[in-house]
Amino acid sequence: MQSAAARLVACGPIGARAIDILMASVTKVLAEPHKERYRIVDQSHPAMRPVAEARGGTEFLWAIGYEPLHGHLVLQSHDPAQLRAGLDVLERVRRGSEYGAARDRLQAEQASAAEAQAREEHEAAARRRFLAKVPEEPAPGEAGNALLCFHVSGRKVWRRFESCSTVNDLLNYVRSLPDIDPGAGVELTNVTTAPAVLLSRPHLAGLTLQRLDLWPSGHLKVCCCAA
After folding, report:
1. Is residue 119 classed as helix, strand or coil in its secondary structure?
2. What pLDDT sits at residue 186?
């Protein structure tokens, strides 16, 4: 048990997470030994993945009495003394500085992941708001369609607009694209013919595609700048 716990804590953040999971699992088995779900470990389950992936996790389960059975680890023989001994080992490891450092790193990683997820959700919501302002795409072949190619981050995005659509409609569409930070400034340049014309200027915002010679087709270069 001790050697398995030592390998776990040496794994860093994932080992600290595995130790916490093992402590919770062993505590539940001791408290309610007759609950079958506490005595079966599915290492493919996302909640148990840190135990399966951290060095020493599976070995620790073996050491406290779990055995392989039908693709799971099962505690067939309930030995409270052995389980308490395992819990004592984990508690001693948790009091050590190595676990403390790993736990701090784990919390920092979790905070960073939560911040990134919140930022992604915020940006996705902003993209949906911009997309809601974009006129519905007309069907292929309808009279008055303008087929535009947006050059974004090295790729081409094709989209149909009505010829009466405006530069504002194009900017809203661009800000709804996954490649674009919806909070950043956007420069939209008509590169269909030379010389190129910067469209993302206030006095051009209400001009139509037909007025800007972007009908029946055109090419637009998209650049982002700091907000």
Report:
1. helix
2. 93
